[in-house]
Amino acid sequence: MCRHLAYLGPVRSLAELLTEPPHSLYRQSWTPTLNADGFGVGWYPPGDGAGPVRYRRAVPIWADANLPALAAVLRSGAVLAAVRSATPGTSLDESAAAPYTLGRWLFSHNGRVEQWRSLPEDLGVPLTAAQVLGMEAHTDSALLWLLAGRRLAAGEPPGYALAGVVRATAAARPAALLNLLLTDGRAIAATRHGHPLHYRRDAEAGSVTVASEPCTDDPDWHEVPEHSLLLAAPGTTEVTPL
């Protein structure tokens, strides 16, 4: 079971978001479950509209000796990060570590899809050999991102695109676990289908955090109901059934 997190709000160091909280994503890499098959961080540099930038490794997050120093000096007001527990039969190199990217989008998947290689055929979604070979990694998560990215490129709103992928995939693979997380640095879309998902808005700070598990002991974390879509920005959150 992977863990992931997205943050939008005032500019903060990556350390404040990923390593320093008492139940940080860093800590979630070994408790309550082990997520030792890589990690990744994507962020939008403040001020110039650039990004996203990614830093990904195929080692456990605690084994990267460079991360603490980098996280202390890198700052952003828009971040998506994940620690990975690999689905059997998928790539183990750093290309398989979320976040995946397309233009300004960052994407992560917490879950598992059995028999994912035949999923496009079962969904009736024609993929060319070039599209399959062009997938960033040989994983169920990369395939879900390809399917979601096609919808985004066709003009679907982010929440609609994620919800469509989850509904279609769940119909074809009823046992699939499909927590998806997406941001363009301005808003967050996320689905809960099979694993926990939480969010916290800090009205005073003007921030919102979406995470698999609460990262702090603050009492104002909210659990997203099962089989739901969450749309979030610093000033608003909306939860609707999938």
UniProtKB/TrEMBL annotation:
Residue ranges annotated for the Glutamine amidotransferase type-2 domain, each copy included: 2-242
InterPro entries listed in its UniProt record: EgtC, EgtC-like, EgtC_Actinobacteria, Gamma-glu_amide_hydrolase, GATase_2_dom, Ntn_hydrolases_N
Annotated metabolic or biological route of this protein: Amino-acid biosynthesis; ergothioneine biosynthesis
Superkingdom, natural source: Bacteria
Keyword entries, A-Z: Glutamine amidotransferase, Hydrolase
Reaction(s) catalysed by this chain's protein: gamma-L-glutamyl-hercynylcysteine S-oxide + H2O = S-(hercyn-2-yl)-L-cysteine S-oxide + L-glutamate
UniProt EC number: 3.5.1.118
Keyword Transcription found: no
Function comment: Catalyzes the hydrolysis of the gamma-glutamyl amide bond of hercynyl-gamma-L-glutamyl-L-cysteine sulfoxide to produce hercynylcysteine sulfoxide, a step in the biosynthesis pathway of ergothioneine.
PANTHER family, sorted: GAMMA-GLUTAMYL-HERCYNYLCYSTEINE SULFOXIDE HYDROLASE, GLUTAMINE AMIDOTRANSFERASE DUG3-RELATED
Protein name per the record: Gamma-glutamyl-hercynylcysteine sulfoxide hydrolase
